[in-house]
Amino acid sequence: MIRIFNHYVSRTGFILLLLEVLILHGTASMVLLLWGGMPQPPKSVYLAGLVFAFVNVFSMSALGMYQQQIRQDLRAVLARVPPAFVLGFVMMVALMHLVPGIGFGRSAGIAFMLGGAGVMLTRVLLFTSSQSNILVERLILIGGGALALECMEVAATRNGPRRFEVVGCVPMPGEQRCVPASKVLAPGETLLAMARRLGAHELVVSVGDRRNGAYPVRELLDCVLGGVRVTDAAAFFEREASQIRVDSLQPSYLIYGGGFDQSFFRAFVKRSFDLLASAAICAATLPVMLVAALCIVLEDGGPVIFRQERVGKHGRRFQVLKFRSMGVDAERDGTPRWATAADPRVTRVGYWLRKLRVDELPQMINVFRGEMSFVGPRPERAYFVEQLSGAIAYYDVRHSIKPGITGLAQVRYQYGASVDDAVRKLQYDLYYVKNNSLFLDLLILIDTVQVVISGKGAR
């Protein structure tokens, strides 16, 4: 993994992205020069090729082709290429009408066919190489308790080109063993000798209690000096799962682990991004919002906008705005309830508003007011915040920044409807609060497009 603006990105995925940008740019430039139909100034060819590449990369990202969380076979990977390039073609045609200088004319179809073929070939080569053991990283876990078992589960479910193999665990004295007996490594040699014998690339320290005198500090130092990476379990979760696990989190990790950028420059960049993104989406979705409002009125004649108190930055309360997707008397008894699958309170129009995330669009007004950001932890109701703050450690950390219309938890996890779901979503929220940047905001925005297209997680 490599770290870009505090966010961990797969090295293989990053190389794949660069290769595909080069292939798409080269394809577009070649098509313009050979079949463009008119002489093209070098600057125009370069600009058109760059726009062509980024439009198609965006469309592939929107269909989840750069996500590392989903393990797919080759057919599933290649099946996404045609729809992605169809979406890219539609976007490119719209862009050519807005910016005539980047037009391809009749050669656009050739550029898209050759570009799609180049992407397919690149994916085939990557998939073939990922089936070998070259991209498999071998891990040794220091510890054999519940934390080590969690690390094993993350390693086993790690998807994408780079995969992990846990070659064994080194249990600590006095620790209750939770890992399978087949994974326990017999003592008798140093950690460095063991790592070299087993071909391990990294040691993950997954010991819950490090005050034990048997904790091998000196041996871990020897491993670092001997060229074997040593990683703390909290950093492993953050790097590989984009989560900060609250059940095994040490306060010192949050204090000394870096991140949590609250500088004036970051605030200025984030506010500018919020306003630009919200204004652009408002302009693009205005016809959709007008149709949604009309459908709500026609269904039951009730109010179009639903207002509900939510908890924002530093615990301040505000009224969040949404298109009403439930009946007028959805909570007639006055008791807040989690939304459930096939919730009977949701109207027929509301079902589609939620499915397509159209019900969230009025929250742009909350962004313009400064109550919310475009990207951030989702704002929760005060009733649930009081419950969750008492039950979940570090829950209030998510209130150190403005809540968002979309967020990392929304694109990585299903709709939350329980305390357990809240814990899992908090782990993504903590990661975002710690590592938030414009780069991560853009990635979440692209993932949000994919979630809207696929309809994942709606209730």
Automatic annotation (TrEMBL):
Keyword Plastid (UniProt): no
Protein localization: Membrane
Superkingdom of the source species: Bacteria
Protein family (similarity comment): Belongs to the bacterial sugar transferase family.
Membrane topology: Multi-pass membrane protein
GO cellular component, one term: membrane
Pfam families: Bac_transf
Domain Bacterial sugar transferase, first and last residues per copy: 270-453
Example of a GO MF term: phosphotransferase activity, for other substituted phosphate groups
Entry keywords, A to Z: Membrane, Transferase, Transmembrane, Transmembrane helix
Bilayer-crossing regions: 12-38, 44-65, 77-96, 108-127, 275-298
Keyword Cytoplasm: no
Major localization listed first in the record, in broad terms: membrane
Protein name according to UniProt: Sugar transferase (PEP-CTERM system associated)/exopolysaccharide biosynthesis polyprenyl glycosylphosphotransferase
